[in-house]
Amino acid sequence: MGCEIMKKLIIGTLLFLLVYSIYFDLKVGTLPTATTIKAIETPVAEARNKSLNPYKTVTVQPGETVLTILERIHTGNMPVSINKAVEDFEALNNSISAHAIQANESYRFPLYR
Question: Is the pTM here over 0.70, yes or no?
Answer without folding.
Answer: no
